[in-house]
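User: Reviewer 2 asked us to show a designed sequence for the structure in our supplementary figure. I'm pasting the structure tokens here. Could you produce the per-position amino acids so we can include them in the response letter?
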């Protein structure tokens, strides 16, 4: 997972940029709660509080949300809709 913002933004944080970006990505990509992200990271051996994840999402989350929204598939244009009764 690459970080969407410059590495300077992650400076002076307890965790490396890869862990922060993975936690933020999990939250925005799958619509999980902060506690769910906390549990997933804990399952991988990373002990972090849900409050830290909340702060990361507020600080670093907007670029992730924008990128995920941009990549979301649009409506099918050539599809045929049929009413089944």
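Assistant: Here is a per-position design you can include in the supplement:
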């Amino acid at each position: 997972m690459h970080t969407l913002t410059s590495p300077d933004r992650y400076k002076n944080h307890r965790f490396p940029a890869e862990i922060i970006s993975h936690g933020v990505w999990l939250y925005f990509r799958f619509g999980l709660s902060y506690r769910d992200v906390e549990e997933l990271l804990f399952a991988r051996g990373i002990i972090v509080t849900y409050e830290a994840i909340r702060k990361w999402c507020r600080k670093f989350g907007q670029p992730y949300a924008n990128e995920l929204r941009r990549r979301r598939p649009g409506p099918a244009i050539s599809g045929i809709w049929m009413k089944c009764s």
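For the response letter, you might also mention the following. The chain has a mean pLDDT of 82. Residues 5 and 63 are 7 Å apart (CA to CA).
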